Amino acid sequence: MQNLLYLLLSQLSDIENKGGLFDFNATLPLMALQFLALTVVLNIIFYKPVSHILDERDEYIRNSLTTASASLLKANQLTTKYENELAESRKKAQLIIKHAQQEAQVIVSERIQEAQKEAERLLADAYNQLKIQKEKALKSLEDQVDILSDQIRTKLLDI
User: Which positions, given as ranges, span the membrane (predicted)?
Assistant: First the structure.
C-alpha cells in the first residue's frame, strides 16, 4: 500500500511538472465521456420532456386555430344568413305596410264617399223639408190672405 501511495504521489508530481495548457492525457477522454454522459442525461431528463411539452403546445395552438377558423367561418355564414333573412323580413314588412296603407286609403275614400252621399241625402232631405214648409207656409198665408180678404170684403160690403 505504501508503494501504491508512493506511485500516485510520484505521478502527481510529474503531472504538476508537465502542466501545460493543452496536455493530452487520460483526463481528455474522461472529460469527453462526462460531456457525452451529461448530454445523454440532459437529453433524457430535460430536452425530451421540454420538446414533448412544446410539441403538445404547438399541437394545441394548431387545434385552437383550426377550431377558431372553423368557428369564424361558421359565424360569418350565420351572419350572412341572418342579414339576408333580416333584409327579406324588412322587404316583407314594407310590403305589408304598403298594403295596409292602400287598404286604409281605400277604406277612407269609401267612408268619405259614404259621408258625402249621406251629406247630400241630408241636404236633399233638408231642402225637401224646407220646400214642404215653404209650401205649407204659402198655403197658410194664402188661406190667411183669403180669410183676410173675405173679412175685408165683408167689412167693405157692410159699410
Answer: 26-47
Place of cell 496536455: 23
C-alpha–C-alpha distance, residues 78 and 70, integer Å: 12
User: What cell does 31 get?
Assistant: 472529460
pTM (whole model) above 0.90: no
Backbone φ and ψ of 21, nearest 5°: -70, -40
* 29 residue type, one letter: P
Count each helix (H run) and each strand (E run) in the chain, helices first. Answer: 3, 0
